[in-house]
Design brief:
This protein is 0% helix and 55% strand. It contains no helices and 15 strands. It has strands spanning 6-9, 12-19, 25-32, 38-43, 54-57, 63-65, 68-75, 80-86, 89-95, 99-100, 103-104, 107-108, 116-117, 120-128, 131-138. The radius of gyration is 15 Å and the shape is globular. The model has no long low-confidence stretch (mean pLDDT 91).
């Protein structure tokens, strides 16, 4: 387990883990405290929309609320995005190159444990040249049906 990258809500626990013997294989996983089943959310072999093969997943934090999981992932080319996971489905929320308030997003900070409430979340976008913005958004549930 990669402490302190762990979060829980009710019976859902989400954690980041690394296999140090494999040269950096890591991923983000969940377990339900009632079934004790471990499920993969994303690992370095996952295909995540908007980026190449992930090299960093939930490196600095993860948020969990009401079955939703918010995390950041990046590839070796510097592409990165925020993702929401629920019930086995991962959706890209926003990523490098997207536009907010007329500015191009270059990077994000990893979400902290209180960044998510249900499908609503807060995130910090970096636009370069010292410009950053704090945004609040809600994922439309229809994307997960």
């Amino acid at each position: 387990f990669d402490m302190p990258i762990v979060a829980f809500d009710d019976t859902l626990v989400v954690f980041r883990a690394t296999d140090t013997r494999s040269g950096g294989f890591h991923g983000l996983y969940s377990t339900d405290l009632t079934s004790h089943t471990i499920n993969k959310i994303a690992d370095v072999n996952s295909s995540l929309p908007g980026i190449g093969k992930p090299t960093l997943i939930a490196y600095g934090g993860v948020a969990v609320s009401q079955g939703w999981v918010l995390f950041r992932a990046a590839d070796a080319d510097g592409n990165n995005a925020l993702y929401l996971w629920k019930d086995g489905a991962v959706n890209r929320v926003i990523g490098k190159g997207d536009r907010l308030d007329g500015l191009t997003v270059l990077d994000f900070t990893d979400p902290g444990p209180a960044a998510l409430f249900g499908s609503s979340f807060v995130f910090n976008a970096d636009f370069g040249r010292g410009m950053r913005g704090l945004y609040v958004a809600t994922q439309v549930a229809a994307a997960y049906q």
